[in-house]
Amino acid sequence: MSEEEKEKIKSFKDIGLCDELVAACDSLGWKAPTKIQVEAIPHALQGKDLIGLAQTGSGKTGAFALPIMHALLECHAKQEHKSAPVFFALVLSPTRELAIQISDQFKALGSGISLRCAVLVGGVDLMQQQIALAKRPHIIVGTPGRLVDHLTNTKGFSLHKLKYLVLDEADMLLNEDFEKALDDILNVIPRDRHTYLFSATMTKKVEKVQRACLRNPVKIAAATKYSTVDTLKQQYRLVPAKDKDCYLVYILTEMSGCTSMVFTRTCDATRLLSFILRNLNIRAIPISGQMTQQKRLGALNKFKSGECNVLVCTDVASRGLDIPSVDLVINYDIPTNPKVRHHLCQTLEKNAFLDYIHRVGRTARAGRSGAAISLLNQYEVEWYLQIEKLIDKKLPEYPAQDEVVKQMLESVTEAKRLSQMKLKEIGGTKRRKGGNDDGEEDIERYLGVKGKSSKKVKRK
Ligand code: AMP
């Protein structure tokens, strides 16, 4: 399609979608297709395989969900009185939250056409998912490990008639962690199928799998290799390591009307920081890979509903989660990828750069503006200079008023002391009871559900 033709496209009807789906987009308030949708959907409707390089927030879920649903409706129409084919499409995602989110979009788009969609992710009762499979869903969205579990253990479940396979966040799915499960899945699905590969970043592995899995795919790039959107304001602040908490509190106080995500390196840090922030009357909630699935979803919902406006997270939340109204991303710790830290320095750097792009991609989504601030100590400056090189932008310093930060030092130090003490205490109790700890309950018990501040800590 020529640039001129693309320019002329204004509606979902123009890109060839059937009336039911045009109406579905309309009911979700989607007025016009996004760039990736304009690029991808016409090719997909012609039956081509796709490899889409698109940023989070670009509307990429719609870019693969709509053509799949279009094909499903066509199939149904051809079969006349018979019902629509089941187990028609499989969408794989690296994280549970993203899988749930993708399924929510399928359900929202498919509500008018009785679309059935099942989510198969870990951390949720197998039986419940077997019941969902027994209802013969058209679409299955899942994480690779749990999907293999069902392929092995759930009677009557097979994907031998699958028509569409989507790998979302493909670069992450192609990590070693998923290799075995992914191979197992590829071995039991038909070769004669459509395959869509979507990724926010293009890696060598994605290219390799593309060659192995896709038949003459059309490549669509709605993002350059490492781009960040222009509506995102990225800044850094050099801080002494010991004062990081204080600067964090300062920024969150300055931006108190905003929704923010604070990224830390470890699960323990998410808990400690949330304790400290809650202690200072900031409505923070942690989310990390250490928490149970139920708790992770609970935390996410509290954040989405606005009950908490600061989500303190590890990189588990940097990929794919659609939290529409994040105004600010704070890199409390710069990203590092612990899995490869000891082996390959270069890989470490590369993964850490990608993590940065994904983290800051949590804000300034779907055309909105947003800010990202990285708190750096003297050892991290070099890394940040490389980020600037990578995204080809010179990034300014965040203008914190050091005097005001200093005034906060005392109460932040006290909040930290109390939080550490409390965590130690809880840790001891948990160990004695053998309990599973994810931080959230402790915070609520300790500080009160609505984020009441501890009476012992006063802010200046
Ligand atoms: P995604 O990149 O798929 O995670 O989508 C990001 C957000 O954009 C989601 O909340 C979608 O509901 C929304 N979205 C997707 N397509 C459109 C569109 N054409 N117009 C408006 N919003 C959209």
TrEMBL record:
Coiled coil segments of this chain: none
Motif (Q motif): 10-38
Predominant localisation class: nucleus
Record-linked CDD domains: DEADc_DDX47, SF2_C_DEAD
Compartments where located: Nucleus
Keyword entries, A-Z: ATP-binding, Helicase, Hydrolase, Nucleotide-binding, Nucleus, RNA-binding
Ranges where the Helicase C-terminal domain occurs: 247-406
Domain DEAD-box RNA helicase Q residues, every copy: 10-38
InterPro entries named among the record's database cross-references: DDX47/Rrp3_DEADc, DEAD/DEAH_box_helicase_dom, DEAD_box_RNA_helicase, Helicase_ATP-bd, Helicase_C-like, P-loop_NTPase, RNA_helicase_DEAD_Q_motif
Region annotation (Disordered) ranges: 423-445
Keyword Flavoprotein: no
Superkingdom of this protein's organism: Eukaryota
Every Helicase ATP-binding domain range: 41-220
Family: Belongs to the DEAD box helicase family. DDX47/RRP3 subfamily.
Protein name: Uncharacterized protein
Provenance organism: Hibiscus sabdariffa (roselle)
Upper lineage: Eukaryota, Viridiplantae, Streptophyta, Embryophyta, Tracheophyta
